[in-house]
Design brief:
single chain, 218 residues, mainly alpha, Endonuclease III, domain 1
């Protein structure tokens, strides 16, 4: 993963402390910027629940297609402002003229297809609800409600997609979602904690491995 992100100088009075550089991490974070290490240490692989949180991850992973994660991470706040905090009902009410406005927004990736996909996916989310489901239950059903624990020993072992991700991608597309190919679906699983893909030498792997009594999927 190419994750080089230019980070502004830290304000010691308002900013969170920088991540500890002495602890072992996944290779992509070990060689990344302080912002990427902070994201790795506090968000990546943590089980996420709730429609807005998962819709945000789905949207950002779709936006990343063809780009580095650092590019998207640098614009995440811009995406949150541009897309109403990823409130699906608000976005679904927008007309096509909003796309014309958003392609001028320097705070996001100004790719018309990717922007349009967020609006289309908001409609797909509403349709999912009308079928008596929700994004949280839908996604977590593929792992039995608990994170998968593949125990990859190194970055070389971590795949770009899996059979589970391909099923998620296929089923999301059937329901009208866009920019949810197998690679994006697996990145969503990793980011949202459906799979614990921290390598076994990373300090977060153990922290995110359930105790035997909590249950885990191999």
């Amino acid at each position: 993963m190419d994750r080089n992100l230019a980070v502004p100088k830290r304000n010691p009075h308002t900013d969170s402390p920088p991540p500890d550089s002495s602890v072992p991490r996944c290779a992509w974070a070990e060689h990344g910027s302080p912002a990427e290490r902070q994201y790795h240490d506090t968000e990546w692989g943590v089980p996420h629940h709730g429609e807005a949180a998962l819709f945000e991850i789905l949207s950002l992973e779709g936006a990343q297609a063809g780009l580095s994660w650092s590019t998207i991470l640098a614009r995440r706040d811009g995406y949150r402002r541009a897309f109403a905090g990823f409130d699906a009902d608000t976005i679904a009410a927008w007309g096509p003229e909003v796309i014309d406005h958003l392609v001028q927004n320097p705070g996001i990736i100004r790719h018309r297809g990717k922007i349009a996909s967020v609006l289309a996916n908001a409609h797909a989310l509403r349709a999912l609800r009308e079928d008596g489901a929700d994004l949280d239950t839908f996604l977590w059903s593929y792992t039995g409600g608990t994170p998968l624990q593949p125990r990859y020993a190194s970055a070389d072992e971590v795949p770009s997609t899996t059979d589970t991700a391909r099923r998620i991608s296929r089923d999301l597309k059937k329901r009208g979602f866009r920019f949810v190919g197998p690679t994006a679906a697996y990145a969503l699983m990793q980011a949202a904690g459906l799979t614990n893909d921290h390598t076994t030498d990373c300090h977060r792997h153990t922290e995110l491995t359930p105790r035997p009594s909590e249950g885990a999927q191999p």
